[in-house]
Each structure stands twice: as structure tokens, then as C-alpha cells.
Amino acid sequence: MGCSSSSTGNKKSEKVLKATLVIQNWYRGYRARLKARQHYALAIFQSIEYADEHGQMQLSNFFTFMLENCSRARKEDPELVSRLFESTFQDIKDRQEYVGLIDVPDSYEGPRLEFPLTFTDINHLLEAFKQQQILHAHYVLEVLFETRKLLKHMPNFTHVKTSPSKEITVCGDLHGKLDDLFLIFYKNGLPSGNNPYVFNGDFVDRGSNSVEVLMILLVSFLVYPNDLHLNRGNHEDFMMNMRYGFTREILFKYKLHGKKILQILEEVYTLLPIGTIIDNEILVIHGGISESTDLNLLHRLERSKMRSVLMPPVSINRGHATDSKKSKGDITVTSSGKVKSNGFPSQQLSKHEWEQVVDILWSDPRGRKGCYPNTSRGGGCYFGPDVTSKILNKYQLKMLIRSHECKHDGYEICHDGKVITIFSASNYYEEGSNRGAYIRLSYGMNPRFFQYRVTSSTCMSPLHQRVHAMETSAIRILKERIISRKTDLMHAFQLRDHSRSGKISIAQWAFSMESILGLNLPWRSLSLRLVNIDTNGNVDYMSSFQDVHIEKPVKEVQSTLIETLYRYRSDLQIIFNVIDSDHSGLISMEEFRAMWKLFRTHYSVDIDDSQVDELANIMDLNKDGSIDFNEFLKAFHVVHKYEKLNTSNAKFANYK
């Protein structure tokens, strides 16, 4: 009887154990599928981000093209070249010209700063920004002028020392995410003589509080110039700000004095140090290195001449530089090949110096050996572990700390522990997409990593809901990229659809998507979210464009033109904003035509000028000979027919 009872108990235990194993295996598989979907979503976000940066870097080629064709450009617009290539620095006179004429009214209820600044001002600023108050333009300009004065006396690389009793904290990209900065200071303490920091570039752009982040960092720098160190990132660049939001933020928050702020800010960027060296053994720079990185050259070059990565030194037709009596706006070339204009000293680095700075601001590490072009971003290089070892050994360094890349955990260690990537903006792409992190370093000790994530109600939701939200957002922006290349994709699909059935294999579809979009994505896996697939595994390629289209401001306009203007809208808007030096928001029809002809020629856009002229004439609503170019481009936007599809749940379930 006892044996029977024992046997029954053993069978029940075995069933429980089997059920437990089944549940565990299912859950592990479920978590793995969620992680895979999260990985795919992050891949989409990052690929499109890098593709946009690649497009941004290509603008430098366009500006070079414009300068090399400056004689032609002068005929269309005599002042165009000077507006593009002349430094605005000489227009900045003195503090009184900018700050003294701006009164702070008694009705102003925001933070008031007292110069010289003290720790109390940092606290006032933090508390005010927590209450979503705006710092008055008077104080913003004061801070920028004070920062400019102090930065002028700083070296290209700041050398700092630590000790077992005095650590230093290194933070990566913040990108205008004020809550992340608040959280860092809450967890790690405010900057002080006993709590030094290095902020490794990309303080601004993308996030909605770039002004506030920048002001906190600059005020802290003015209070503790020997203990808070600011490195220039690739987004501390006025041309990058035009695309990624900081320029718009300043002009929105400071409608009356925004232009003055942008003007002095442009110079402040050029004066930021380009790196920090800790204990003579740790190099902290924003991007990375290349096999030709020359730290000795980088130590001594005139960093203030690096106005923008997007405006490289160029050689122009020397035939235009023979007459020494040039009128205003003319450009000459010095014997060293540098550009010079209007009798002012050259505002450019040499080409070699420029390339050195681009490499340290834009490069990324990879596992493959060697140094090769950074094809994703279009600027800098990919550098392998052998390059890291070579450069570190050459300059007796032990480690490279860089930022520049969003990492899921907020940091990443590679190249046998010699390269650390640190990224401090959590939820960078979407709620829950990544953690932020910072590093604490002290002499003779291993780096210590601290991770965090700014939380909200959505971050507390179950993992599958957060992954679904992130994935939906990623698919949305990917569909927008797909629809902008509809004509090219259709041509690629039809070349492979020999039977004209409207269907091709998944392999053919994936190859077409990659060859046209160039995003390096797992297209086969993503196909379940993007297209309809029949029981034979063939793709209905027209379904690539379902539920989304580009709004046409005029029905008669050709689809090819609409797609082209949509695809290049950011580039065109930046060029317009550079030309629109008075920020009037208007561009004459003549300026529009001249700009478009140069743009079309350089980018090899196969669209007849008459089509663009016709469209521009239609968009000139009041027929005054000018158009609001920003509004003109906003007319071309992607419409998602169904924002929330209940039927997508079935597809979503299959995708799991």
C-alpha cells in the first residue's frame, strides 16, 4: 500500500516537472522572440538615423560643389556664396552690442543669474528648469559670452588627474534630454571641485530641451572651469542643428533674440575642446580614431577654424583669385590652398587638419581589422582593434572612451577592453528602447558603470507592450522611407517580375529593398510586418506601399517629383535656411530656381526644371514672386491611412 502511494506521488511529481519545463521553455522562447523584435526595431532606428547622417554629410559635397561653381552662383545670386561661406564671427562685436540692449523686465518670473556665477546659480537654474521655466535671452547671451571668453584660453585637449580619493565621471550623448541630466545629477551628485565631470559631446539636438541642457552645462562650466570639462561632439555644429532641431528650438523659444543666440553659439562651438586626456592614459573623444590620427597635430591645430564639418576646405578655380582688388563676397585661395576672403584671415583648416577633426568626431569602432570608410554615416571611418592598439601604443595610452552611438545597455566594451562607448540619453529612440549610462574613473582602478532609465507610466507597462510600441514606431518610420523611394522600388520589383504577376520571391524582394534603400536591415524577418506573402512564399510587392502615401499638394504633380522633394526635404530645408540669412522664412522665385538647379545638377536628379518651376508657381499663393519655402516643403508629408489597425494584431501575433 505504501509502495502504491509512493508510485502515484512520483508520477505526479514527474508531471509537475514536465509541465514546469514546458512553461519554462515556452517563456524562454517568448522572451527570445521579444528580444529579437526589440533588436530589429533598434536596427531600424539606428540604420535610418545613420542614413540621415550620411545624407547630412553629403551636404558638404554639395557646398563644395557650390563653392567650386561660385562664378555661376554669383550670376544667379551675387550674395549667395558669401552667405554660405563667410564666417559670421566678424559681425559679433562686443557684449554690450548683444546683451546690454536686452532688458529683463520686472514681469519676468524665470531664473535670474548673478555674474560672476556661483554654485547657487546652478541650483536656481536646475529648480527653474524642473518647473519648465525659460531662461531669459539676456542671461543666455551672458552665459555664451562668458563661456566664449573662458574657452578661448583652453587647449584643444584638456588634461585632468584623478586619484583613489577623487574620481571623475564621464557622460556620453545627452541630446537635449533634460530628465536624463537631472537623473545623473541626482544619482551621482552635482558638479563640484570634489565631483568633476567630462561631458563627451552631443549636448543638443533631437531632444526638446537642448537649450536647458546646454545652459546647465555651460553655467556649471563657468562655476567650475577646472572640474567640468566639455568636449565637442558632431552635433555641436550649427549645420547639424539645422537638421536635427536645435535651431528650431532656439528660434521658437527666443523669437525676438534667437538669431543673436545662434550667432554667438556658432563661435562657442568652434572653441570647445576636442578631447580630454585623463591621467595621461585615457583618451576621451566623441567619435573615434583612424589609422592616420595624429594627436600631436590635433593638439596644436586652430580648432576655432572648424566652423562646421559640413563645410570642408576646398580649392576653387585659381583663375578667380588673381585680382587682389576683389569686391565684397569674393573668395581667394592662399598659397597653402586655404580659402580666404574679404581680407580677413582664413577661416578654414587645411584639408588634412579638417579630416583629422572629422575622424575624431564621426568615427565608430568595429570588430573587423583595419580602417575603412564609415559608409553608414558618410563621415569618419570604421576602425578595428588593430588600429586602436596602434594609436594607443603610439601615444602611450591605455584606453579610448567615446560616445556617438546609442547602445541598448547605455555602454559597450570592445577591442579587448581598450574601447568603451558610453551613451547617456535613455529612451533615445522610443520609450524603453535603451538605458543611459555614465562611467566613474579613478587612478589605478577599473572603470565603474552606472546604468539608469528615465521612467514614465509607459515604461512600467509589460515588456511585450513596450516592445510592440517601439516596434510599431520603427515600422512607421521605415514605411516612410520606403514610400519615398516608391518609383525606384517599383522599377526594381518589376525587373524581377518576369511573368508580370505582381509577385516576386521573398529573396528578390529583400534584395530589391536593400539595393534601393541601402539600410542593411534583416529584410526577410521584417517582411512579415511590411508586405503580404501568399501560401507559396511569394511577396505581393505592391503591398510594400499599403496604408501609406505622400500627400500631394497639387494633384497634377508627377509622383517622381513628389518623392524626390520628400526624400531631399531636409537637405533642401537646410540649404534654404543658410540662404535665408535674415530668417524671414521667404525665398524669391529666382533664389528658389538657382538653388534647385545647382542641387539637381549635383545630386543628378532626373527631373525637368519646368516641373519644379510650375510647382513653385502654384505654391506662390499670393503671386508676390516669393514662397515660404519651409511651408512649401511641409506640403509634402507622408500620410498613414490607418494609425491603429486592429487587423495588425493577427500579423503581430504571427511575428512573435
TrEMBL record:
First and last residue of the signal peptide: none
Gene3D superfamilies: 3.60.21.10, EF-hand
Cofactor(s) the protein needs: Mn(2+); Mg(2+)
Enzyme class: hydrolase
Alphabetical list of InterPro entries matching this protein: Calcineurin-like_PHP, EF-hand-dom_pair, EF_Hand_1_Ca_BS, EF_hand_dom, IQ_motif_EF-hand-BS, Metallo-depent_PP-like, PPP_dom, PPP_phosphatase
EF-hand domain location: 567-602, 607-642
One GO MF term: protein serine/threonine phosphatase activity
EC annotation from Swiss-Prot or TrEMBL: 3.1.3.16
Keywords: Calcium, Hydrolase, Magnesium, Manganese, Metal-binding, Protein phosphatase, Repeat
CDD domains: EFh, IQCD, MPP_RdgC
Catalytic activity: O-phospho-L-seryl-[protein] + H2O = L-seryl-[protein] + phosphate; O-phospho-L-threonyl-[protein] + H2O = L-threonyl-[protein] + phosphate
An annotated GO BP: detection of stimulus involved in sensory perception
PANTHER family: SERINE/THREONINE-PROTEIN PHOSPHATASE 5-RELATED (PTHR45668), SERINE_THREONINE-PROTEIN PHOSPHATASE WITH EF-HANDS 1 (PTHR45668:SF1)
Family that this chain belongs to: Belongs to the PPP phosphatase family.
This protein's name: Serine/threonine-protein phosphatase with EF-hands
Species of provenance: Ictidomys tridecemlineatus
